[in-house]
Amino acid sequence: MRNLLSLGVSALALAGCSLVPDYLRPGAPVPVSLPSGGAYGEAQPGVGTVDQLGWQDVFLDPSLKRLIGIALRNNRDLRVAALNVQAAEAQFRAQQGLIFPQIGATGSADYAQTPADLGAGARTGRTSPTTSRTFGIQGGFTSWEIDLFGRIRSLSEAALETAFAQAETQRATQISLVASVADAYLTVLANRQLLDLTKQTLASQEQSYRLTQATVAGGTSTALTLRQAQTQVEQARANLALYTRQLAQAENALALLLGQPVPADLPQEVNLASPLIVGDLPAGMSSEVLLRRPDVLAAERLLRAANANIGAARAAFFPSITLTASYGTAGASLSRLFQPGSGIWAFSPQINVPIFTGGINEANLDYARIQSRVEIANYEKAIQTAFRETADSLAARGTYGDQLRAQQSLTDAYAQSYQLSEARFRAGVDNYLTVLVSQRDLYAAQQTLIALQRDRLSAQVTLYRVLGGGWLANSAAPPPAPVPPAQAPEPQAPRPLRSGSQGAGPQPGR
Question: Distance (Å, rounded) from C-alpha 368 to C-alpha 203?
Fold first, then answer.
């Protein structure tokens, strides 16, 4: 027994050799700086702070804050993401448990009867059957693999990195949910304003239509003018049905994000001119902030997991040692189980040396290397996607303000034109066709203005999301860290991104 313990200690001392390649983070295939100037506007300080801004401090509308809180409690996608983290943690614990021997205990009782003409009864002349009883208690472990070359530890490391990736995916899901709720709320407000505008326009155009009917009957207007007034009435009625449908669908989309019906007591007077979003989010020059996005971090974790799988595939080429051992007591009766001389033990070491595997080990190693290169490409694509989304959002922030101001001026000009045309018509200077045209132009400009107001606020929400904002509730709160119950090496500190650099990544074949 002492020799068994010594061998076990020696095996554990040898264990820990790892064949996992050294990890090297791939270079980012994007420019070192985020775009600025022209459509993007001037760079502003504070690039490293956007992901630390809590959504409670970014979204100022109380109704929106309430809706986001409901969604964080009830949304099913976020719930699934949290369960996926727990599932990945459980898989890691199960894989990590294979490093240790699985110790168990068994108790047994065997009864057997032998006919008199068989065995010892045939030699002694006995005529009655022989009955035997055996009792035993044993404890030990079966087929415990000593992890000499780190195969099991490599698989455990891969499972841990996968669990970390799921934790980052949960963060990304929450960030996307917060932004989606804000965007859906803006869509509801926009459609509500468009519906109210259309109702007012329809009432005004119906009044104009009745007035035109009277002037046609009096001979002061033509039938063409009447039909043109009718077309505007019918267009407004069609838009009324359109915006009624769009409002209902927008509320349904918001309800899906909330995980419950939209509360009926939300204020109805809120519009897109209300202070919903912080006027301007900081977004500076360095693209290094993209490395902190949870989707990029998740892609890097999966790359680390693929790198660890290479170590496990390499270890399959080397011998493996498995141990089976047991110790216990046995006797012909229960009273003899613990008597001197009743002990039993067994120890069965086994070494497996791969000589010919039909190319299976080589194929598994090639597969692990290819998967590592796939994850490198996925990691680089995640950074490129993050860069493109951020650049698009910066371009939107840099141009929507000017477009909205121009559209507001255009709408004001159409409103003045409509007032002047009405005044000229009442004074008998101009015909009513000019009034109808001015009314139509004003309605179209007002619709475009509402859509631009919605798009500008939505662009601010998107900028907050693509820079990693939405995970914290309050800016002062430290970010939670959903980490599996084990320690693992953290990623290297982000390196400056080099323009046009190619990802080196792990080099498993070297």
Answer: 69
End-to-end alpha carbon distance in the chain: 44
Q: Where are the beta strands (DSSP E) in 271-318?
A: none
Q: Is the dihedral of CA 498, 501, 507, 510 positive or negative?
A: negative
The mean pLDDT of 311-318, rounded to a whole number, is 91
Q: pLDDT tens digits for 236-259?
A: 999 999 999 999 999 999 999 999
pLDDT exceeds 90 at position 493 = no
**All residues at 6 or more sequence positions from 16 whose CB lies less than 8 Å from its CB, including other chains:** 147, 150, 153
Q: DSSP labels for 99-168?
A: TS--EEEEEEEEEEEE-TTSTHHHHHT--SPEEEEEEEEEEEEEEEEE-TTSHHHHHHHHHHHHHHHHHH
- C-alpha–C-alpha distance, residues 139 and 102, integer Å: 11
Q: Please, what is the Cα angle at 248 between 242 and 251, to 5 degrees?
A: 135
At 14, is the pLDDT very low, low, confident or very high (cuts 50, 70, 90)? Answer: very low
Q: By 3-state DSSP, what share of the chain in percent is helix, strand and coil, each rounded to 5? A: 60, 10, 30
**Could you give phi then psi for residue 137, rounded to 5 degrees?**
-135, 130
- From residue 322, alpha-carbon distances to 241, 472, 495 in Å are 74, 48, 43
- Please tell me the distance from the alpha carbon of residue 183 to that of residue 458, in angstroms, as a whole number: 6
Is 80 exceeded by the pLDDT of residue 390?
Answer: yes
Residue type (1 letter), 342? S
Q: Residue 471 has which token pair?
A: 């995970």
* Residue 432 near residue 225 (C-beta atoms within 8 A): yes
Cβ count within 10 A of residue 221: 19
* Rounded alpha-carbon distances, angstroms, from residue 414 to 202, 370, 401, 433: 17, 62, 20, 15
DSSP-derived 3-state class of residue 383: helix
Reading across the β-sheet that carries 320-331, which strands appear in turn? 103-114, 130-146, 320-331, 343-352
Q: Which residues have C-beta within 8 Å of that of residue 280, sequence separation ≥ 6?
A: 44, 397
Q: Tell me what pLDDT residue 427 has.
A: 83
Q: Write the CB contacts of 333 (distance below 8 Å, at least 6 apart in sequence).
A: 133, 135
Higher-pLDDT residue of 417 and 480 is: 417
What's the half-sphere exposure (Cβ side, CA atoms, 13 Å) at 26? 32
Tokens representing 257 are: 């994000």
Exposure class string for 112-121: b at 16+ Cβ within 10 A, else e: eeeeeeeeeb
Residue 219 C-alpha from the chain's centroid: 68
HSE value, Cβ hemisphere, 13 Å, CA-based, for 153: 14
